[in-house]
Design brief:
The protein contains seven helices and eleven strands. It is of the alpha+beta class.
């Protein structure tokens, strides 16, 4: 089903707005296309620009990492489909990779309006560098906005996905600068020592009563 634009700002936990839009891989019906996967929806300001060229190449090269995590990537700009197809050739030549994910051609600003990707005080024509991580239940789990001049760190986006997927399955949170495989924090709401012992058989270190460090539970 196609959703019309709204002025309501998207917040964490909201259902990601559905849409139907043209792309380099044909018409995308977003929720249907997403299926049961996690999704990274990210916008770039304009085709044939240098920072965007490096970003799309980076995402293409990370496909195996996204696949391991059950993640689909989909890009967007307000340029027409013909520009996307021409620019894709430049990306593939300069970044030494094949573009292996769809690019939405949002010429009518339908999707960028739904997701608040155009910030008039920055530029009233082009999208900023927005990132939305959406889970298999179609809920928005993370939003990051970068200015046009700053390329994104997609290793950080992978790190966040690792954290989201881990904390969905276990009663933990991840500390600052955490990376997959490092120690985590037992959530403060978990008080029962018998349950803690069962969930975290490797034990924990209580730095403070509310700060309990334990090895990542899904690692040997």
């Amino acid at each position: 089903m196609e959703t019309t634009a709204t002025n309501k700002a998207i917040q964490l936990g909201d259902i990601a707005p559905d849409f139907e839009q043209d792309s380099t891989e044909g018409t995308i019906k977003f929720h249907q296309w997403a299926g049961n996967s996690w999704v990274i929806l990210f916008s770039h300001p304009k085709d044939y620009t240098p920072v965007c060229t490096t970003e799309l190449g980076t995402v293409a090269k990370l496909k195996s990492e996204f696949d391991k995590r059950g993640v689909k990537a989909i890009g967007l700009s307000v340029d027409p489909l013909a520009d996307h197809k021409g620019w894709t050739k430049d990306i593939e030549e300069t970044q030494n990779c094949k573009i292996n994910f769809p690019l939405l051609a949002d010429g009518d600003r339908k999707v960028s309006s739904l997701y608040g990707m155009i910030h008039p005080n920055a530029n009233d024509t082009f999208t900023v560098r927005s990132v939305f991580i959406i889970d298999p239940n179609k809920k928005v789990r993370l939003m990051i906005t970068y200015p046009a001049s700053t390329g994104r760190n997609f290793n950080e986006i992978l790190r966040v996905i690792d954290s989201l997927q881990l904390t969905d399955k276990h009663k933990v949170a991840t500390p600052a600068n955490w990376k997959d495989g490092e120690d985590v924090i037992i959530v403060p709401a978990l008080k029962d020592e018998a349950e803690i012992k069962k969930l975290f058989p490797k034990g924990y270190k209580a730095v403070r009563p509310y700060l309990r460090i334990t090895p990542q539970p899904n690692k040997n």
